[in-house]
Amino acid sequence: MAMKRWPRSRVVRDLNKRFSKDEIETTARKLRQLPERAELGSLSRKLGIIPQHSVKEWQRSSGSVPTLISAALMGGIRAHLRSLKGMRGARAIRFRIVDGDRFALRIVERDGYMSVTLTMRNKPFGKSGA
User: How far, rounded to the nearest angstrom, does the alpha carbon of residue 90 sit from its chain's CA centroid?
Assistant: First the structure.
């Protein structure tokens, strides 16, 4: 059965909800259960954002993110969540996923939250070497 296309806005909305100030501590407890080298796709599965019947398709899709960007994003999220222990006023993480010519990851500290922008290259490279 083919995966029902999940609107990017829905995935981002659900991620932002799980990493909101109100839910980030619950999210941290869930993500501590993942192996230290868990891939990026496991984050959304563990948080229940992707339904069980769509997991294989989601793994293929999230597997297109380059290893270095995926590892940096997962490492950054884990480090942020570890830093929350003992802090008052948990700092949220807000996600954006945008299209671009190249894959990219940008993490910026803002007042009261961390901003994470993942740029996805959704077109294959052409023969011109672009």
Answer: 18
